[in-house]
Design brief:
The complex is a heterodimer of chains A (263) and B (229).
Chain A: H1 2-44, E1 46-51, E2 54-55, E3 59-62, E4 65-67, H2 69-81, E5 84-89, H3 95-100, E6 106-107, H4 115-118, E7 121-137, E8 152-156, H5 160-166, E9 172-176, H6 179-187, E10 193-197, H7 198-207, E11 211-213, E12 219-228, H8 232-248, H9 250-258
Parallel strand pairs in A: 1-5, 1-6, 8-9, 8-10
Antiparallel strand pairs in A: 2-3, 3-4, 6-12, 7-10, 7-11, 7-12
Helix pairs in contact in A: 2-8
Chain B: H1 2-13, H2 18-56, H3 60-75, H4 78-89, H5 97-123, H6 126-134, H7 139-169, H8 181-192, H9 196-225
Classes of the chains: A alpha/beta (263), B mainly alpha (229).
Chain lengths: 263, 229
């Protein structure tokens, strides 16, 4: 019996050792394969954009199509570059991995420039300004972001709100897969507050009358797109196209189409 | 090799990230343990109702309820059941998520366990039952002393299988923002953007747990079999 257990264990170890080698070898292969893939994609003139279409008004579903600010901007960029845009909808926390592993050419998902992400991928120039805000229930005792200490805070996994909430003293962070689920949990009193980007926050509370956004925002930040580390060529192309869009006023036009600049 | 060490450091050591996995493991084990208990209890009751109805024609109403329970639970995915319990049934209250998960997985498992138990009870030859009755046992006594011990031995492998499934199924509890083992790995993944290490670590832990559990069931099976001779 002991022998059998031993052999099972050995087999398991072998499998994992193999898996480990395979995985490591695979990733370096991937890196090599990337260049080829990109070359192929460019021949076909398709630009694959990774996004998480649960983030209105930057990207969300309208019927079967993903629309929003990022989508319009990326379409304009693709037009500038004479390429065709293909959108891949995935979980937000997978976007960086998808871009760095070459499964997508670039990512645009209302993604804040932050140093942790910058270690894995390169950021383009920023194209939109945003802030992290706190949503609470009406009549909540949380009046400023400082009151969040020791509270139950809902966030979307892998967002900047997630890493900020993590640093709040004594707070319990609940990481939902989707931003709106965190908001839903808040309106059901399961948590005390939600930290999320300003524009989606405004969209989410449209539906919920008993929720408000605190006047004081948590942090200010800028959105940029991401491109794989070794793909400087695409980075320059996107930056060039972004600059053209900014200069021609098209960028402001797109953002103005989705966000009322009344405030 | 150094790259490997760096990644290991980044994913598990830096900022004490291993704690996500460790705490998650605790949650997974807690949920699985109580869900298994709830599943056995529910499954046993439902199986007794169902097989009593089949053998004697009594308990018609309870049997009807049991059938509805089996149909609904087996007819819908466990993730959907979990979300319904969290966001609909306990729609407007702050509630302990471990409790929600235990309830969801326990209810779910109970339906499968019920059918496993019932198949065990029905597999015992009717002659055993008649023998019990002719010895003067009543229905309950016959069930308890003669049918159940044999039935349990027959269903043990299927039961072990069900619990392995249950253990792995708890990995969907991340849907209600519960930080179980899988979610622990996901959180690390979202911070380090490395898929390889966290996912393989999580997979390895599940595998080891299942192997230990399989071993335990094996020992129990052998113990029970010793009364065969």
């Amino acid at each position: 019996m002991k022998k059998r257990m031993l052999s099972i264990l050995l087999a398991a170890v072998c499998v994992f050792a193999l898996a480990a080698c395979g995985g490591d070898g695979g990733s370096s292969d991937d890196a090599k394969g990337d260049g080829k893939d990109d070359a192929k994609k460019e021949e076909r003139q398709v630009l694959v954009m990774a996004t998480n279409a649960e983030f209105p008004p930057y990207e969300y579903y309208e019927g079967k199509e993903v629309v929003g600010i990022d989508v319009d901007i990326c379409k304009a960029i693709a037009d500038e570059l004479g390429m065709e845009l293909e959108i891949e909808d995935m979980a937000f926390d997978s976007i960086v991995a998808a871009v760095s592993s070459g499964k997508a050419d670039f990512g645009a998902a209302g993604m804040t420039v932050d140093p942790d992400r910058a270690e894995q991928v390169n950021f383009t120039d920023t194209y939109a300004h945003s802030s992290q805000v706190v949503i609470v229930k009406k009549g909540s005792d949380i009046a400023t972001p400082d009151d969040l200490e020791g509270k139950g805070i809902g966030v979307q996994l892998g967002t900047t709100g997630d890493s900020f909430a993590d640093d709040i003293e004594g707070a319990t962070v609940e990481r939902y897969n989707k931003g709106f689920e965190a908001v839903q949990a808040l309106s059901q009193d399961k948590i005390d507050a939600v930290i999320i980007d300003r524009e989606p926050a405004k969209e989410f509370i449209k539906e919920a009358e008993d929720l408000v956004i605190l006047d004081e925002s948590y942090t200010e930040e800028d959105y940029a797109m991401i491109v794989a580390k070794d793909n400087d060529e695409l980075l320059e192309k996107i930056n060039g196209a972004l600059k053209n869009l900014k200069d021609s006023g098209k960028l402001d036009e797109i953002i103005g189409k989705y966000i009322n600049s009344e405030e | 090799m150094e790259a490997f060490q760096n990644r290991f450091y980044l994913n598990f050591i830096k900022d004490d990230r291993w704690q996500y996995i460790w705490d998650g493991l605790g949650v997974t084990l807690k949920v699985t343990f109580f869900a298994v208990l709830l599943g056995i209890l529910l499954g046993f009751l439902v199986a007794v109702v169902r097989s009593t109805n089949e053998k004697t024609g009594k308990l018609k109403f309870l049997n009807f309820l049991a059938k509805v329970y089996l149909t609904v639970i087996r007819g819908t995915p466990v993730v959907v059941q979990l979300l319904i319990i969290y966001f609909v049934i306990f729609g407007s209250v702050k509630i302990d998520k471990v409790f929600v998960a235990v309830l969801a997985f326990g209810l779910n498992s109970g339906a499968y366990v019920a059918e496993i138990f019932r198949s065990g009870i029905m597999s015992i030859d009717n002659g055993q039952f008649e023998a019990g009755r002719s010895l003067g046992f009543n229905y309950v006594q016959t069930m308890y002393h003669i049918i159940m011990p044999q039935a349990f031995k027959n269903v043990l492998p299927a039961l072990g299988n069900e619990f392995i499934v249950l253990l792995k199924e708890t990995s969907v509890s991340g849907y209600i923002a519960m930080q179980d083992l899988t979610k622990g790995g996901d959180i690390i993944r979202s911070q380090t953007y490395d898929a390889f290490m966290p996912l393989l670590a999580v997979a390895a832990i599940y595998l080891v747990m299942v192997m230990i559990f399989t071993k335990l069931v094996g020992i129990l099976e052998r113990r029970l079999r010793s009364s065969d001779h």
